[in-house]
Specification:
4-stranded antiparallel β-sheet, disordered N terminus, WD40/YVTN_repeat-like_dom_sf, WD40_repeat_CS, 6-stranded mixed β-sheet, single chain, Methylamine Dehydrogenase, Chain H, 34 strands
Length: 475
């Protein structure tokens, strides 16, 4: 009997990445040069938002998706922050509402007008102050309307109820800067990675840590819940400084189910999971390629499919929600790749090759839609509910009718769990102290330069005055 290799059957083994033509890209964008480990990009079915390089504060562009091509240098910006913008996220249920966070310690909610911006926007519909340090992450709750999570460099995660414009809960279990936050399908659990090298699964309403992993062999950077499989996937660095991924059981974080080394590069690995196709995408910061895998329920759990390759390195990646994809082209995922060197945003479509042009139900199951399953009061009272699903065959063009109404409030102190967040400031980190020191050194150097220029000018004036007095006319 002759030997035959065993092939694993998968409908996604031939998925390929297709780069949009140049006229369908967004060109001439001054992408931020900030080295913070975020994507600096957010996209939904109507708008693309990109954090830009700017002086005297933080700003980002909001461009309608149909407005491709070259963007004018004087294109209107959202520019109300006093510090660099570190993260932006679109509201999953109201497509013209976007949240941003900044080094100025604030979180702001912006309402983008129909058709995009016509002039610079400086006034947010809601300004949220509760962190005592810069805010590095914002995340919307996946099933509840107007619930926003923010993580700051004060080691706290605040839960904001935007109906009242106040923080209603505080998660205070971290001992260092929070690197990443991820929700499970119904939003009842929050997974976080932290600079203290620990992976945590937290019950967000109580702030109770359900599981904790002290990752010594696998230093975690990013985490993502794998849909409803009760598993987590993390990306990080091994003890030999190679990039690796690890799969965990969310109910037992004592040991990872599997660990797999990827390569020896140094860029941060960003994981993206598609719960509908059970596909995992890995994109490295500074890399040009995107690897993709299929996640299974049995060993070896992780099956390598293919790799999209490009010579241009990516600074970050925005991801289109499912209801914004082109189902007629069998598109199952779409990235928006930030190429800093070219000032270019490049759409990359992941396509399942099919000959038939009819709707492919096997690759487009029912998916979370644009309607919230819960109100803020319901979720805060302890109710959990799965997301409301929609079919991409009939309902992918439906728009949500929810309107954001900003509360009117005047309050200077922010008290949560009996603690005034603006008064309870943690000690400064070593990096913050170094940053302050270098800023002061730069300021001293600048003042010295100004003083020396003034001294030179004074000497010139004195010499001119002396020459004037010694001239023959004065004699």
């Amino acid at each position: 009997m002759s030997w035959r290799p065993q092939y694993r059957s998968s409908k996604f083994r031939n998925v390929y990445g297709k780069v949009a033509s140049r006229e369908h890209c967004f060109d001439g964008i001054p992408i931020t040069k900030n080295v913070h480990d975020n994507h600096f990009c957010a996209v939904n079915a109507r708008f693309l938002a990109i954090v830009t390089e700017s002086a005297g504060g933080g700003s980002f562009l909001v461009i309608p998706l149909e407005q491709t091509g070259r963007i004018e240098p004087n294109y209107p910006k959202v520019c109300g922050h006093q510090g660099n913008v570190l993260d932006i996220k679109w509201n999953p249920f109201i497509e013209n509402i976007i949240a941003s966070c900044s080094e100025d310690t604030s979180v702001r909610i912006w309402e983008i007008p129909e058709g995009g911006l016509k002039r610079n926007m400086t006034e947010a519909v809601l300004e949220l102050y509760g962190h005592s340090r810069r805010v590095g992450l914002v995340e919307w709750h996946p099933t509840t309307n107007n619930i926003l999570f923010s993580a700051g460099y004060d080691y706290k995660v605040l839960i904001w109820n935007l109906d009242i414009g106040e923080p209603v809960k505080m998660i205070d279990c971290h001992t260092d800067v929070i690197l990443c936050m991820s929700f499970n399908t119904d939003g009842s659990l929050l997974a976080t990675t932290c600079k203290d090298k620990k992976l945590r699964v937290v019950e967000p309403r109580s702030g109770r840590v359900l599981q904790e992993a002290s990752c010594k062999n696998h230093r975690v950077n990013r985490v993502v819940f794998l849909g409803s499989t009760k598993r987590l996937l993390t990306t990080g660095v091994s003890r030999w400084n190679t990039r690796q991924i690890a799969l965990w059981d969310q109910e037992d974080l004592s040991m990872p189910l599997i660990e797999e080394e990827i390569d020896g590069l140094s860029g941060l690995l960003f994981p993206f999971y598609d719960a509908d196709t059970h596909m995992l995408y890995l994109a490295g910061k500074g890399d040009g390629n995107i690897r993709y895998y299929e996640i299974g329920s049995e060993k070896p759990y992780l099956s390598y499919l293919m790799e999209f390759r490009s010579p241009a390195p990516q600074k970050g990646l925005g991801v289109m929600p499912k209801h914004g994809l082109d189902v007629s082209a069998c598109e199952v995922f779409r990235f928006y790749k930030l190429i800093t060197l070219k000032g270019l945003i490049e759409p990359i479509s992941m396509i399942v090759p099919r000959r038939s042009e009819t709707y492919q139900e096997d690759i487009y199951p029912m998916t979370p839609g644009t309607e919230p399953a819960l109100t803020p009061d319901e979720w805060l009272s302890g109710v959990n509910r799965d997301p409301i699903l929609m079919s991409l065959k009939e309902g992918y063009k439906k728009t949500s009718k929810i309107v954001f109404k900003a509360p009117v409030r005047e309050k200077k102190s922010v008290v949560v769990n009996g603690i005034d967040l603006l008064e309870n400031v943690p000690p400064r980190t070593e990096n913050e102290l170094l940053r302050m020191f270098f800023r002061q050194q730069d300021e001293i150097r600048r003042l010295k330069d100004e003083l020396s220029q003034k001294d030179i000018r004074i000497r010139q004036l004195q010499l001119e005055l002396k020459n004037l007095r010694n001239s023959p006319k004065n004699n």
